[in-house]
Specification:
It is built from 16 helices and 13 strands. The longest helix is centred in the middle third of the chain and has 17 residues, at 215-231. The strands form 3 sheets. It has a 6-stranded mixed sheet with strand order 4-5-13-10-11-12, with helices on both faces. Strands 8-7-6-9 form a 4-stranded parallel sheet. A 3-stranded antiparallel sheet has the order 2-1-3. It has 429 residues and is an alpha/beta fold. Bound molecules: ligand F0G. Residues 116, 118, 141-145, 212, 243-250, 305-306, 351, 353-354, 381-382 line the site of ligand F0G. Ligand F0G is lined by residues 116, 118, 141-145, 212, 243-250, 305-306, 351, 353-354, 381-382.
Length: 429
């Protein structure tokens, strides 16, 4: 029998499993990841990836499937693509100045079809679900994963089921899951409870779970980093800064860097800076204790996307931070909202959790961890429209009694009669 080209492997005991085995943990309890043979890696190269940008086929337009030999080598008819990825890399001098850093880039993952980076992982996990003939796909979510799952499940004609913490996700994200037609299960409990429940359900009711414990999610999310490298002409930046909750993305970033080195696409690995909200920072707590253990917390932060107290991918993420000699830190809600305001005013815009990246960069600069002349890429994980309640709350009259979801005029807005004279008066002309 010939050697497999791709397989699943435990990150702890290295036990291997076939690629098509439905598996979220190894028999030893360790997390599993996709591995591929040197022969498989020979199938993909920088020229091939770049040449596909000229193609009009959906799987080549996708910023995920353009890298398919290094993501998941499925038969093309099984691929469920929107397409996704192909997001832009921006520079804004005022934001570089604000972060006191010479060269900062912003990878805007809010430009994905459902408005967050989750689409990159979801296209791969749902394609696998389709390939395996699954009837249900399920996830627990703080909002973005559920929005993404709902869209891709509908496209694949598979029933989506989303477990969401009651009252804890933004209306926009919930509306997406509703609109795209998933079954909504509102859990009396927080995200961590919902995550526990979806894992039990996945095992006992054979729902196919597409949280980032699903190794195929991580494979898709690696392409954020690979696209950044390609956009920077394969001159790797010094630092990649990103917000961290359940730690799937930190794990994906680390794997992407290791594999880019292995494939010879880059020579110098970027370091990862993983940024948590201070009210939801168990990974940061663990980092401070040299990762001896992870103590779960009850999470509380304005950045609802990363309101997570017991991140399921922490062992994978720990290995990534150690291997890239990266860092973990935390920022307060005030720092997150301040950074968000700067990002919004630059015209880029993002949801609160995404702004943790810029807030974290500024903090790490001030602490001297990241030097001024470093080349840095911050990932903006979600779109400004994802959480309009928080945004409007920021601009609400502090003396008003609304919490952002009313039709009260935001601070600075003026109510006028529909006349040119009123406009002139309001503008001081
Ligand atoms: N940024 C945004 C906008 C997110 O939605 C998430 C996670 C993260 C950052 C953190 O990524 O969990 O891989 O460390 N959102 C998940 C969800 C948990 O359910 O949508 P992570």
């Amino acid at each position: 029998m010939s050697e497999p080209l791709e397989w699943l492997q435990c990150i702890s005991c290295r036990k291997t499993y076939p690629l098509t085995e439905v598996l979220y943990h190894c028999s030893c309890g360790g997390l599993v990841e996709v591995q591929r043979s040197p022969t498989q890696w020979l199938k993909i190269s920088r020229p091939l990836i770049e040449a596909r940008r000229l193609s009009h086929a959906q799987e080549d337009i996708s910023g995920v499937w353009r890298f398919r030999e290094g993501v998941l080598d499925l038969p093309l008819p099984s691929i469920v693509t929107h397409p996704e990825g192909g997001t832009h890399l921006y520079q804004r001098s005022e934001l570089s100045q604000w972060a006191e850093t010479d060269e900062v880039w912003f990878k805007h993952e809010g430009e994905n079809p459902t408005g967050s980076f989750k689409d990159r992982g979801m296209t791969v996990a749902v394609s696998m679900a389709k390939y395996l003939g699954k009837k249900f796909v399920a996830c627990a979510s703080t909002g973005n994963t559920s929005a993404s799952l709902a869209a891709y499940a509908s496209q694949a004609k598979i029933q989506g089921v989303v477990f969401i913490p009651q009252g804890k996700i933004s209306m926009g994200k919930l509306a997406q899951a509703v609109g795209y037609g998933s079954k909504i299960l509102s859990i009396r409990g927080d995200f961590d409870k919902a995550m526990e429940l979806v894992q039990k359900t996945a095992t006992q009711l054979q729902l196919y779970m597409v949280n980032s414990l699903n190794p195929f999610r991580i494979e898709g999310q690696k392409t954020i980093v690979w696209e950044i490298l390609e956009q920077l002409r394969w001159n790797a930046p010094d630092w990649l800064v990103l917000p961290a909750g359940n730690l799937g993305n930190t794990s994906a970033f680390g794997k992407a860097i290791q594999e880019a080195l292995l494939a010879g696409w880059i020579q110098n690995p970027p370091k990862i800076a993983s940024i948590q909200a201070s009210g939801a920072s168990p990974f940061y707590g663990s980092y401070l204790k040299q990762f001896a253990s992870l103590e779960p917390v009850t999470a509380d932060t304005v950045a609802s996307a990363i309101r997570i107290g017991n991140p399921v991918n922490w062992t994978k993420a720990r290995d990534c931070i150690l291997k890239t000699r990266g860092v973990v830190t935390s920022v307060t809600d005030g720092e997150i909202l301040e950074a968000k305001r700067q990002i919004d005013l630059s015209g880029l815009g993002c949801e609160p959790a995404s702004a943790a990246s810029l807030a974290g960069l500024r903090k790490l600069r001030r602490e001297g961890v990241i030097p001024k002349n470093a080349r840095v890429v911050c990932t903006l994980t979600g779109h400004i429209l994802k959480d309009t309640d928080t945004l409007m709350g920021q601009y609400q009259n502090p003396h008003g009694n609304s919490h952002g979801n009313s039709h009260e005029l935001p601070l600075g807005a003026v109510e006028i009669e529909p006349t040119v004279a009123s406009v002139a008066k309001a503008l001081g002309l």
